[in-house]
């Protein structure tokens, strides 16, 4: 019905008609009079119902979907009929009529089974699972949600392309969240966390598992390098596709066809390489059961360390609930439920983003600092409920491992303030996208020596415009020399090239330090470190490389710590690239840092490491030193974040 009409204009037209004709039957008659083509009537009323539902016109949406259902039944269109039943179920759920909602979702499920629509069947089970939970029938809820996930995982297992798997997995994340919530309501806390964990960063966690198993196969490394190279080309091509489509409308230039052909070839090559990699995975898939116990595995590794606590978060916006799982070194898990306002949280994150942008402008730094200080207390109140604060205080932990969820990955955890202390000054904080990634990082091989007992690569001021970064690496070099009697490889200015980095990481390293420019770009795989001659090393390229050894990586460069999760809770950006390359512990920054305080903090960081402190405590102490030196200004110490293993040391 809407033809070439833009969605926004279509919505406005429908809402205008609803306002003029508030009676459902009268409204539907007016729509019928518009002369909808016979074969489009079902689809048109289905879309009208969706528009009405999105604007909370639930009763009118019901009328539109019932009319669509009439036409779909008349046309013997089972797929359309199922869609109508599903939408009717969603509408009745919104109206609080759970019994009717269940009735319609069951009708939709029956049809989807009949026509073999596995994706539709999975969605029906998810909707039913949520409805049973709302009706307090937890047994039926568990059964339905588990059936939904089983079907989705079966479909995903047949997809070779990582990007398609990630996109597909994003559709089932809410089902995992719902199942985790139901397990928690039944008192099965470990199953609740395991369910949540199995929805997080699966592509990265699976890759790291298979990389360890297959590292002895030369063909595996070759395929990984080729895949990284082609992925970079594919993402560049994707940026051009829209422009090419527009160009085709105004010109018949043969060059456009040549470009399209080249893009298709690259896509085909990438698909072939992805299939080869998947076949290698399939050979060892039996060693990696899908339902393995992540919680027990992580606890068995964490129990080797002392004075730590884990906070793992679960956001349930549908129920306006925030759940915090507090895990202590005894292996005890205490879940805390609290209410939260999604609109308020989104506003807080926007305020943070705006403050960071302001901080890059000299004339607005004071304003940015003020906003961050206000926000630090506001966010603490939202994310660290009183029961969580009390539990942490009672535990007397030194190390705090935070596993955020969804938009909480954007939160500046280090600067959260209870009115007395900042988290990043009170604890050694490490952020991870999952418990699974924490255990993988802690399981990485310890230091590899080059015969002299220690090896470091320091690179600074590659773009010749950051004298402070050159001073920084030279001071770090002096510290390492003074303590270890070892002369680390130090490359500055025109020696700080991408080629030299690639060559040097082929030898064993304990430390890689980069001080220069970093960029965050979209897609995040384009985020990069900038070397001499403006040569960029992207996150995509890093994913095809491998460190010799498992070095601590510190990135004293702007925006290197921005790791936005894409749908499906997949970790992206430079930090991911360095994890894939083999680093277990990565220090990076969340905003633009200042030369003097950056130099001071990083020199202190290495001073602490050389005094046999672990990475996490070294960073905490360095933050505290700079906090005291710069009058507590957040902009000077708050940008530094740590991912991975907080307990790693160089000795």
Element layout with pairings:
Blueprint: H1 7-20, H2 24-32, H3 41-54, H4 58-74, H5 78-94, H6 98-115, H7 118-134, H8 138-156, H9 162-170, H10 173-185, H11 189-197, H12 202-214, H13 218-250, H14 254-283, H15 294-302, E1 308-316, E2 321-328, E3 333-339, H16 342-359, H17 365-383, H18 386-395, E4 399-403, H19 423-426, E5 428-431, H20 435-443, E6 456-460, H21 467-484, E7 489-492, H22 498-504, E8 511-519, E9 528-530, E10 536-538, H23 539-542, E11 552-557, H24 574-581, E12 585-589, H25 595-610, H26 615-629, H27 634-637, E13 640-644
Parallel strand pairs: 1-4, 4-5, 6-7, 6-8, 8-11, 11-12
Antiparallel strand pairs: 1-2, 2-3, 8-9, 9-10, 12-13
Helix pairs in contact: 3-4, 3-5, 4-5, 5-6, 6-7, 7-8, 7-10, 8-10, 10-11, 13-14, 15-20, 16-17, 21-25, 25-26
Organism: Candidatus Argoarchaeum ethanivorans
Protein name: CHAT domain protein
InterPro entries: CHAT_dom, TPR-like_helical_dom_sf, TPR_rpt
